[in-house]
Model the fold of this input.
Amino acid sequence: MQITLIVLGIIIALLGLSWIFVPLLSGLPWIPSHRHRTHKALALADLQPGEILYDLGTGDGRVLIHACREFDAIAVGIEISPAHCVIAWLRAFLAGVLDCVSIKMGNFYKHDLKKADVVYAYLTPEHASRIRPRLEMQLRPGTRVVTISADLDGWEPVGFDSEDLIFLYHIPPTPGNLETFLIKRETSSQDKTSVN
Ligand SMILES: C[S@@+](CC[C@H](N)C(=O)[O-])C[C@H]1O[C@@H](n2cnc3c(N)ncnc32)[C@H](O)[C@@H]1O
Done:
């Protein structure tokens, strides 16, 4: 009995340490997406029922549950922190969505992303520039990529929400960046005004 309690204590302590230190050491800390931001991002990406969504660095799995419940999507989360994987699984279990949510423990830089219809990633600028070539190499034409907080410099977005810093890209991406997108948008709105 005492040994069981000690083992349980060690497991809980290790999970606690993994909760704090693994995201920190990865350089991409756990900052959960707010519900309205996730909803806007998935709507911007036009996530359809039955489509496969990948959340790169899924944290506590809230994006997966939202994608499954609100969009009827099949949601796959990749997460490097064991503690976050456990919590994400528990949350999905309690929400009753394990039929459409799966959590894979691992490094999203090493994961096969080819099956994704939509990729969701809450990134820092450093991780955004690191993941971009991998997305370009792996994703199928027609895949949508929606990033939160950081843009994929070198790709021109096809959609942008300035209020919540959400960036949408289509594969294959057009070379460019946020600036080229904003210039094009400005020019086309001026053209429309001058026609009217
Ligand atoms: C900014 S949080 C985003 C969480 C979730 N996607 C959301 O929007 O609520 C980033 C998450 O990515 C995880 N992470 C960092 N580097 C990773 C990597 N290389 N592979 C998988 N997960 C990673 C962190 O542990 C953290 O939980």
Observations:
- Helices lie at 2-26, 35-44, 62-71, 82-95, 125-138, 178-195.
- The mean pLDDT is 94.
- The longest strand covers residues 74-79.
- The domain at 2-195 is CATH 3.40.50.150 (Rossmann fold).
